[in-house]
Amino acid sequence: MTRIPGGLAKSVLSFAIVFCSFGFANAVSGAEKKTCALRPIQANSEAAAYGKLAPDFTLKTVDGSFSMKDEWNGCDVYVFFKTFTVPAANPLKGLSDLTNTMWKSKFDYLIQYSPRNTHYFFLSQNADPAQRLVDQAIVLGHLNEALATLPVSEQVYWKSRIHIADDDFSSGSSAWLANIGIESFVIDRSQKIRALGVGVYSPLLADGDFLKLATEASYYQFEKDREISLSAARNVTVVPAFKAEVVQAGWAAFGGKINEVEFPSANDMANFDKMELDLELSCDRAACVYAEGNYYYDRIIEVYLCRDAEDQDCDIELGRWITPFGLGGRWVHDVSPLLALVKNGGKQRLRFHTVDRYNVSLNVRLSQTSSTAPKPFAYKELFRGGKLNPALNLRDPLTFEIPEGTKKVELVTTTSGHGWGRDNENCAEFCVTDHEWKINDTVSYVNTLETAGDTFACFLSTGTGVIPNQPGTWYYGRAGWCPGLEVQPKVWDISANVKAGERNKIRYKALFKGGDYVPTVNPEGAATGYEAEINLRSYLVFSK
Prior knowledge:
Layout: H1 12-22, H2 30-34, E1 58-61, E2 64-67, H3 68-71, E3 77-83, H4 93-103, H5 108-113, E4 118-124, H6 129-147, H7 152-159, E5 162-164, H8 175-179, E6 185-187, E7 193-195, H9 211-232, E8 237-247, E9 257-263, H10 266-269, E10 274-282, E11 300-305, E12 316-322, E13 329-334, E14 346-353, E15 358-367, E16 376-387, E17 398-400, E18 408-420, E19 434-439, E20 443-448, E21 485-486, E22 490-493, E23 504-511, E24 530-543
Parallel strand pairs: 3-4, 4-5
Antiparallel strand pairs: 1-2, 3-6, 6-7, 8-15, 9-14, 10-13, 10-15, 11-12, 11-14, 12-21, 16-24, 17-23, 18-22, 18-24, 19-20, 19-23
């Protein structure tokens, strides 16, 4: 993997190496595509707009006509990329330069790493017919160059899925493709018109321009698969916690918004063995920009459980996410062991904390997957994190006993490393750390945050939920997190290594290259960076 301990390297070579090692997680094979439920195109009388159903259309291309009605199957994603020229004095000149640069990019990586159930459309909106012909020739040349390296069957396949428009969009059913706006866009598997991430137009990752489009396709495949999975779930109890509510805590340690949330009764809670957090953040693009013109950054956000009706700190963490740069999103992740924290059911108070202003919707999804599976019923809070330095590892071990009736004991930890620029190793956001848990001085469980400093680890995770093409350095791997993704708890079943009826001991250490982390100051970043730290919440969960 490509490591970036003190700086952030960018190279086509490392890009290619990382992609060859991993690939997109959800590229759809022919066998997988056959399992997709075919759906007819939906009739739509509304004007084309973002978030609305795409209308049927016929588009003239260099290979003939493309009819959306004839091609639509409910299984494919359709990505539209535009280019255009504007007068030099026009404020869109910079955007035009970027789109024209991408228009001239090579197709190799786009074909190699796109999910197979993707169509691409290249639309030249130049007013001059002669210039449109030049644009078409450029794209066709790069396409043929890329196809020439593939087996014949693959050439035929992708030739049918990469479409070069030969249309002036002046009238007819294709006019909306140009009139919807200057931006490129997607028609997703639900037939909705969706905006591409604004980072598509960023000069970041310039060496892999069209790979930005591949991440869009990858994410929309993931999103539809998630929708299908959630729809197929049975006997789910949805507990609304926040309903499109504006939350902005700023930097207040215990700020945010506290809601009283009605969970099922304690008797009903005892039957559940699965709990998911379903979070949606939204903000329009104008609202996601500071007054000085900078997009929202990647911030930690959390939802906490209050200990009682009088508690205002509300510091028992149920869930953690990292916001995307300047965009919203939706995330659904499993926190089933933490059912023990809300086992009493009834009225519970939850505090949601976000530094920036977002519209927040959060549902708690409860279900029973097995009537015989052990159910969480008790928990013990363990260590929290702190500044990453030798003092973090000087804490005494904790002791605990196993509650009567316990069938399973789990160690549940949510760990993310933060801090950058202050020290020479660029910890803890961009340095690899090991988080060791030792039980009774004998057995160790280790969580290695190995994607820290891996140049494209987050870029490669759009197929597992990372919001693509954020307007910032979203693609770099971090220590246990990505911008625009949940921080997933790590869960170990430690039942075999604890002793009922005795006092057990657990110790935690944060290690760097096998030992304590001793920060050395980076003189160039000391004034602007911030100290390395580990954000850790940990619990023992007991099930019966």
